UniProtKB/TrEMBL annotation:
Pfam families: FixH (PF05751)
Protein name per Swiss-Prot or TrEMBL: FixH family protein
InterPro entries: FixH (IPR008620)
UniProtKB keywords: Membrane, Transmembrane, Transmembrane helix
Spans through the membrane: 6-25
Length: 151
């Protein structure tokens, strides 16, 4: 059976389109390529963006900044000593970019100016820490990316 050049071109186009469609269907059905937004309520969070910017500005203007230091027991978050610990309200959120199931929040309940994030809650790798707190009706927001390595 002899195939002329016109038929060969049509068959080549059909083969190419089938090849592309096969990969499109395969990638949409594969659970490994399921890419979610960074957070579940991404668009809702964007509405409060100006408030976040103001809170970050307030945190950057503190005379003593919020700091995070590695200790033998985990991470120690140090708040400015000028702030009374009983008046601090807020949360410390730890976000793991590689696995959303490892994310967790800690409420800020302290008796001195330090908060310990225990070693047993942390795995080696990158963590994004967001500290949002309210002190005397003023909001503060501190964000930092850290790499945790157990001793």
């Amino acid at each position: 059976m002899k195939i002329n050049w016109g038929t060969a071109v049509v068959l080549a186009f059909i083969a190419f389109i089938s090849f592309i469609l096969f990969f499109v269907v395969r990638m949409t059905m594969d659970s490994n390529s399921n890419h979610d937004l960074v957070t579940e309520g991404y668009y809702k969070e964007e509405l409060g963006f100006q408030k976040k910017m103001d809170a970050e500005h307030n945190a950057n203007n503190l005379s003593t900044k919020i700091s995070i230091e590695k200790t033998n027991l985990g991470w120690e978050v140090r708040f400015p000593e000028a702030m009374e610990p009983q008046k601090l309200k807020g949360t410390v959120s730890l976000y793991r970019p590689s696995n959303k199931h490892l994310d967790f929040d800690l409420p800020i309940k302290i008796s001195n100016s330090n908060l310990l994030i225990p070693d047993k809650r942390l795995l080696d790798g990158r963590w994004d820490i967001t500290i949002s707190l309210e002190y005397e009706n003023k909001n503060y927001l501190h964000k930092e990316s850290l790499t945790y390595i157990k001793n």
